[in-house]
Design goal:
Blueprint lengths: L2 E4 L3 H4 L2 H11 L3 E5 L16 H15 L2 E6 L9 H21 L3 E3 L8 H26 L2 E5 L2 E4 L4 E4 L5 H11 L4 E6 H7 L3 H8 L4 E5 L20 H10 L6 E3 L13 H25 L1
Parallel strand pairs: 1-2, 1-10, 2-3, 3-4, 4-5, 5-8, 8-9
Antiparallel strand pairs: 6-7
Helix pairs in contact: 2-3, 2-10, 3-4, 4-5, 6-8, 8-9, 9-10
Length: 295
């Protein structure tokens, strides 16, 4: 099981190259390249026509350090409900898949469409997402990269409280993966997101199983907000979670998505915070292995 971490926000605080170096020096096995903001404007590193050249240079640099890109995160959000805008987003997602493939990623996380209020439009969103992901499968084949669907959440406008959205419940998530029924489509279980809409995260993981879940977003929450902080800095039960990952025989990588953990930290201390995160990650992977040995 490889230990990896998203380049976000280290890539924004420094550069992609510096992020990969810092992650490598911290002791991680791999990095999750963040392309979530690829649509945000011309200031993005991969925005110009030389994006493939830049990706190849970044790949050569990472290879020279001995660290791999295990997965990527595509542009988000993936839809806004406007046909012209959504077409531009779709093209950017394809671009992100190409970049991720050049970097060596085997999987790219692509959020489902969720621009409608979920409570009133779950079936409409299901149909839209079946079209959306099926339209992306030919590009998976072209670039030899899998797409991982991620479980999401929405915020109730008047109360600002978090509630269900696309794939937030295991049974619907299973329906998405099973209906798509493609070797190019898999599931990324965002454990933090699951904690916000499920009383029992372990049950969520068990009901999906390791045949569907091949990627993770690991972070901690206060069970109220999408905190995206380091495990043991929130209220989630990581003893139970590591035990469950062992019980379902999870075989994918262990990837941190902890961008808020780095928020407001002095730049000079980012490498040290990254090393601390690596130590926590090694501990959690060791816990999974210990639980497996006791099964």
């Amino acid at each position: 099981m490889l230990l990896s971490i998203s380049t976000n926000p280290i890539d924004a605080l420094f550069s992609y190259k510096d992020a990969i170096r810092i992650i490598n020096e911290a002791g991680f096995d791999a990095y999750d390249i963040s392309l979530a903001h690829l649509t945000s404007g011309s200031d993005n590193y991969f925005a110009d026509l030389d994006y493939l050249k830049k990706a190849k240079e970044l790949r050569i640099y990472a290879d020279s350090l001995g660290i791999i890109c295990n997965q990527a995160h595509g542009p988000a959000p993936t839809s806004k409900g406007d046909a012209e805008t959504d077409e531009l987003i779709f093209k950017t997602i394809i671009k992100s898949m190409e970049i991720a493939s050049v970097l060596g990623a085997k999987t790219i996380i692509v959020h489902p469409n969720q621009h409608f209020t979920y409570a009133d439009n779950s079936e409409k969103l299901f149909e839209l997402n079946m079209q959306f992901y099926n339209k992306l499968i030919p590009y998976c084949e072209k670039f030899n990269i899998k797409i991982a669907v991620e479980n999401m959440w929405q915020c109730i406008p008047n109360t600002k409280t978090i509630t269900d959205s696309t794939c937030s419940q295991s049974l619907e998530f299973n329906r998405y993966i099973d209906t798509l029924n493609s070797k190019w489509i898999t599931a990324c279980a965002d454990i933090g997101h699951a904690s916000l809409v499920n009383k029992d995260v372990s049950r969520f993981l068990k009901e999906m199983g390791s045949k569907r879940i091949t990627a993770l977003h690991v972070h901690d929450t206060n069970l109220i907000e999408d905190s995206h902080t380091l495990p043991f800095y929130g209220l989630m039960d990581y003893h139970s979670i590591t035990k469950t990952l062992a019980e379902i025989d999870y075989k994918g990588d262990f990837t941190f998505e902890i961008y808020k953990y780095f928020k407001n930290k002095p730049l000079e201390l980012i490498p040290d915070y990254c090393k601390h995160a690596c130590n926590i990650g090694r501990y959690l992977i060791n816990e999974i292995e210990k639980h497996k040995n006791n099964i």
